[in-house]
Amino acid sequence: MLYGAECWPTKRRHVQRLSVAEMRMLRGFCGHTRRDRVRNEEIRDRVGVAPIEEKLIQHRLRWFGHVQRRPPEAPRGRGRPRLTWDETVKRDLKEWNIAKELAMDRSAWRLAINVPEP
Q1: Which of 2, 66, 94, 116 has an alpha carbon 20 to 30 Å from 32's alpha carbon atom?
Q2: Regarding predicted confidence, which is higher, 99 or 78?
Q3: Are 91 and 38 spatial neighbours (Cβ–Cβ below 8 Å)?
Q4: What pLDDT is recorded for position 40?
């Protein structure tokens, strides 16, 4: 349930929903239902699990420590960086052999980017 939680900007309602779902699972593990009226703390003690809010904070702080210890020259993000609009336009200009300064002259620009209809 906490996959990627270190980056979540959690709100109170998110934590509440997570704790409700967690307690539902823990009650199922113990074989209890809400009708049995067993307190959450008692179920947590039986299973030996910390509250999910504390686990969220732990994950967040662990990630913060990891980020703080990274060298400044370390690459940011995983994999190939996302393609930006600017990079796409630059690639298009290069592919069509058009200078970006030509965009300042509207009539010349429209002629350069015109695709003839088949």
Answers
A1: 2
A2: 99
A3: no
A4: 94
